[in-house]
Amino acid sequence: MSHQARYSKETFLTRLTWQDLDPDYLRQLIGLAKIEDLAGAGLAHRPKRLGDVTTALMPEGATGRAQLTARGPLVLCGLGLVQTVLDNYGQGCQFDAKSEDGQLKDQGDVIGILSGPSAPLLQAERVILNFLQHLSGIATETRLYVDALDGSPTALLDTRKTLPGYRVLQKYAFACGGGYNHRIGLFDRVMLKDNHLAVAGATGGNRLTQTVALAVNTFEHLAVEVEVDTLEQIPPVLEAGADIILLDNFSPLELKEAVQMIDGRACTEASGGITLNSLPALGDLGLDFISTGAPIHQSTWKDIGLDWL
Questions:
Q1: b/e map of 4-36 (b: 16 or more CB within 10 Å)?
Q2: Could you tell me if 134 and 152 lie in one domain?
């Protein structure tokens, strides 16, 4: 039994934009960061003295300006958070961005200028930098992985290996680095992984075909992706009409054979053990996608300075 693919590769080439993020969700994250600093949130025994005891020593009514500067090469991400952070700490603070998310910045490049009452600027400084440095680290690392696939038609996807509570921000940073976003959660794609198939007793043969077909017929408006560990699992998955076949921890030779077997009847995705060094060779195999969580969970923060003018 053969079939035509329900979805083209282009259907899955999606990226989160800043407008896709929920402002209320972002304010909640910022609020949590604020009460960690000012009220010891997370401690079983809260401090008796609350607030910023250091800034309380500064001259009352002081105002000022501060500059955000890249202290090394980076791909910028998170600028949309800056004004929201400032608004959470008080009125009258402004952020004048001199850059945009996704831009490559060199050492010494000005990212933006903050101005307003000194007290909220001082209190918000660390929270602003924490967000920018972390998200820019992800965007910068992602750009390295994307560049390693340069010239290849294979697209780089992220995974759900994200810090709980920070998924959409981290996936947005991945998109700023030039990658594409895989599913956001358990709700937007049927994804039968090895453990699902084990629970269903459907690791091969007719039972595998029946299980995948059930998913395809039950969720007509959702893509169905199936993880396979062996070449032998591919024919029953294709017979059932899966939209994407995830080739988990296949060798390059196995991946090449798998792509030939699938022959455009489903999208192909390789995952597992992906490294910067392995990407160039994998990009020549005809895969539609390569997915990896490494640019998120192995990234390092980038150095950004906030200096008073």
A1: ebeeebeebeeebeeeebeeeebeebbeebbee
A2: no
Asked whether residue 94 is assigned to any structural domain, the reply reads yes
Question: Is 87 one of the annotated active-site residues of the chain?
Answer: no
φ/ψ bin of 142: left (φ > 0), alpha (ψ from -120 to 50), beta (otherwise): alpha
Query: 290 with 157: CB under 8 angstroms?
Result: yes
Quick one: residue 263, left, alpha or beta (phi over 0 = left, psi -120 to 50 = alpha)?
A: left
The catalytically annotated residue of 248, 254, 284, 303 is: 248
- Residue 164 and residue 139 in one domain: no
pTM: 0.96
Active-site annotation holder among 6, 161, 207, 256: 161
Burial of 55: CB neighbours in 10 Å, binned 0-12, 13-18, 19+: middle
Of these residues, 46, 100, 126, 232, which one is catalytic?
126
Residues 197 and 248 in one domain: yes
What pLDDT digit, counting tens, does each position of 21-60 carry? 999 999 999 999 999 999 999 999 999 899 999 999 999 9
Contacts of 213 (CB under 8 A, 6+ apart): 240, 241
Domain shared by 157 and 114, yes or no: no
Residue 248: active-site member: yes
Helix (H) or strand (E) holding 64: strand 63-70
Can you tell me the distance from the alpha carbon of 275 to that of 252, in angstroms, rounded to the nearest whole number? 13
Residue 126 annotated among the catalytic residues of the structure: yes
132 lies in the same domain as 208 = no
State both tokens at 193. Answer: 């992984």
Range of the domain at 47: 18-144+300-308
Q: What whole-number percentage of the chain has pLDDT above 90?
A: 96
Q: What total number of domains does the chain contain?
A: 2
Contact yes or no for 276/164 (Cβ under 8 A)? no
